[in-house]
Fold this sequence. Notes:
Its main location: membrane. This protein is an alpha/beta fold.
Amino acid sequence: MVRMRGVRKAFGPRVILEGLDLDVGAGEKVALIGPSGSGKTTILRLLIGLTEPDAGTIEIDGQYLWHSSRGGTLERADEAHARQVRRCVGMVFQQFNLFPHMTALQNVHEPMEQVLRLKRPEAKERARALLARVGLGEHVDKRPSQLSGGQQQRVAIARSLGLQPKLMLFDEVTSALDPELVGEVLGVLRELAHETDMTMLIVTHEIRFAADIADRVLVFDAGRVVEDGSPEIVLKDPSHPRTRQFLRAILER
Ligand SMILES: Nc1ncnc2c1ncn2[C@@H]1O[C@H](COP(=O)(O)OP(=O)(O)OP(=O)(O)O)[C@@H](O)[C@H]1O
């Protein structure tokens, strides 16, 4: 589902990713963890097309978004093709980015009409079902300001699911929430991980949660993958002393 080869990204003189190779198989649930600033968000933004690489190849579901030829020239997919590729990718951010003047239902059904060209009654029906699935069946007519942070984040997840992505990217989706609201959002992610065949890439600091739902854990450090394996191995017996230190620091928080 994801193939990255030799991906480089710098912001000014600061190199964030250098020669990154990453493969994620269809249906895999992968947790990305690593110290702050190690480049995790940058990877997700590259995959959804919000950030452009300096070099490398990025393919989603066998179709390329960016391609570096042997000579090193970076080619971008043409806009129509790129749009089609990006359409199979959904992303949920730390901030919910809901439209404040719309109800939960409108926030979910309007993108389906615009992007998938569904007729309003069908989009609304699907939106209601999705909101019920994330436990918000009773709240469809509320605006974001009438919902808690955890509820707003669940609306954002329903909105992304409405666009039927094959690949879902979650970027620290519980970081902006009060601690007592974290569990309800992680519960939705857990259900999606266990009950759907969507490919999921989850950036999280919730290590125990990652261990519970991920097939595979990748640890990034300074833009490189330093650990890649099953949660049992990576989280209990990491090979790098820096990873051990990092995991201990998180678990002791
Ligand atoms: N648009 C930008 N312009 C300049 N620097 C940027 C930009 N986006 C990211 N960076 C820098 O790139 C580095 C990697 O950022 P990134 O957000 O990918 O890290 P991260 O691993 O997701 O960190 P965190 O866990 O804190 O979210 C950081 O030092 C960040 O300040």
